[in-house]
Amino acid sequence: MGAVKIFQNPKESILSMLLKNNVRQIPVPQKDALLKGVVLSVDNNKAIIDLGPTGIGLLIGPEFKGAIDVLGKFKKGDEISGQVLVIENKEGYIELSVKNAAFQTTWKELENKFIANEPMIVEVAEANKGGLLVKFRGISGFMPVSQLAGNHYPKVEGGDKGKIVQELKKLIKISLNVKIIDLNQKEKKIIFSEKAAEEKMQDLSKKYKKGDIVDGVVSGIVNFGIFVQMEKGVEGLVHISELAWQLIENPGDIIKVGDNVKAKIITLDNNKISLSLKALQQDPWIDIDKKYKKGDEVKGVITKLNSFGMFVALDKEIHGLCHISEFGTQKKMEETLEIGKEYNFKILSIDASSHRMALGLVKENVLEDVKEAADKKEKKDDKKDIAEKDNVSEKEKPDETKSEK
Fold first, then answer.
1. Long-range contacts from 104-111, C-beta under 8 angstroms, 24+ separation
2. Could you tell me the mean pLDDT of each successive run of 10 residues in the chain, 405 residues long?
3. Which CATH number among 1.10.1740.10, 3.30.390.30, 2.40.50.140, 3.30.1330.10 corresponds to the domain 210-280?
């Protein structure tokens, strides 16, 4: 096999160059195909993906936002899957959709669970008089009232529809253990049943009990936690609050699908298994008095701003809260402070038993930042004024050519 040629034509696309060189060995992507790659770079509105010999992938615009919706924050070096939307755009990139790829992968998993009659965990999203709208990793399905387990069935005298809906709404955001009893890909229709999963759960209660330590594999990640497969057909849910002792914004930041984990069963009832990773980790607040004391001045990074204050990371495991009263209004706080930036704080109180720390902002460093920003703006405005004056002066100069004539 000869050496690879160097191409001189800058307008020639990446794909056409590859095909000219080694048409037999370079895999040609097909539209709608699923491709795996490694993130090369992430910008404000796009990400470049290394697809190996197939080429270079691109997530841009709505598809970049869709990737964040599915994966959370992702970075250089992360492995991702995408569906081919455009085989080759004007710049020679293969345009991808992570959202479409996730849908395809999840739908295939649903089909496998339906065929194997395996239970799964879903989250209740909405309720109406007919039943519940539930979601499995972003894909919606329906569970009729008649398919609810006895402990969730709305027992309303007289069958008042309004009261039934009110009872069903109490289940919103609750996780349920269910089975698929009807699935139609063409119509994108899935019907779930909680009753059908009850028998399996009764068998599991004989094998597992609260407090057991189990090994499992992360089978799915959602915004409220992760799913762990304990054995074939058996999944438990680790809520986001049970992942670690520190504040977690996005589960995908600390764990990936396929990771092996050890977890503790914290509940095994109501047809679902709840797990905890945190329960197997040492509580960092037990010895907090060795690291922090009331009155200490400490440095902390702001991780989140909301209506009642700011969350501050003092280290990887310990977070504190600085109340909104330090600023008076949320708007003023957001105008003055910046997420991801480090500031000085004073520890006002520590409650190790409830894992709470109250912080007060040391205003001097904030005032310095505000003054520095104002000075930069003033210098920028001065330069702009000087440039405008110079421009006016140039225009006012007499035309030397005309004066000579």
1. 104/34, 105/34, 105/81, 106/136, 106/137, 106/138, 106/139, 107/139, 107/185, 110/136, 110/139, 110/180, 110/183, 110/190, 111/183, 111/185
2. 43 54 63 90 90 91 86 84 91 91 89 88 91 90 90 76 89 91 88 84 79 91 84 84 85 87 87 88 88 91 86 89 84 84 91 89 64 55 57 54 46
3. 2.40.50.140
